[in-house]
Design goal:
seven-stranded antiparallel sheet, 3 helices, single chain
């Protein structure tokens, strides 16, 4: 990803628990805020999502798009845009790093968005930052509430 925005957060859960929530696309509308619908279109030979259709409403960015997911390791997943109504590119990743005794995880979210309509770079970066911050906060809340249940 060339120009991207990234941010990190520490979650009080093991990396496997965090990745379990990240990989559970069907439940994204319950915790992400911006994702209104999620539909897995294709899975790999390990049963992980390879293509996912997402209906997104992130204020300035509203879209119905399909992302292709690449599961790089047990600690990293990346995605690229397959098709979209308003986006030219949407590349991102979650990278997990176990902390301490392995019951805490640092999650780094990287995102690069390019829209089909003209948008100032500053506004685009602000939109990326809002998406990232909301996603990380939602992920932390979801993982910690599920792991304590």
């Amino acid at each position: 990803m060339a120009e991207h925005t990234s941010s990190s957060i520490t979650i009080e859960a093991a990396p496997a628990d965090v990745m379990g929530v990240i990989a559970d696309f069907d439940r994204y509308p319950e915790w992400t805020g911006e994702v209104k619908e999620a539909e897995i279109l294709a899975v790999d030979d390990q049963g992980r999502a390879e293509q996912v259709r997402l209906v997104l409403d992130a204020g300035a960015i509203k879209d119905d798009h399909v992302l292709a997911y690449t599961w790089n390791s047990q600690y990293e997943v990346g995605w690229t845009l397959v098709k979209s109504q308003m986006l030219r590119a949407l590349d991102g990743s979650y990278a997990l790093a176990p902390l301490g005794d392995g019951n805490r995880t640092e999650v780094t979210y990287r995102l690069a968005v390019d829209v089909k309509i003209p948008l100032l770079g500053m506004i685009k970066r602000k939109a990326e930052k809002v998406i990232i911050d909301r996603a990380l906060a939602g992920l932390k809340k979801r993982v910690e509430s599920v792991s304590k249940a």
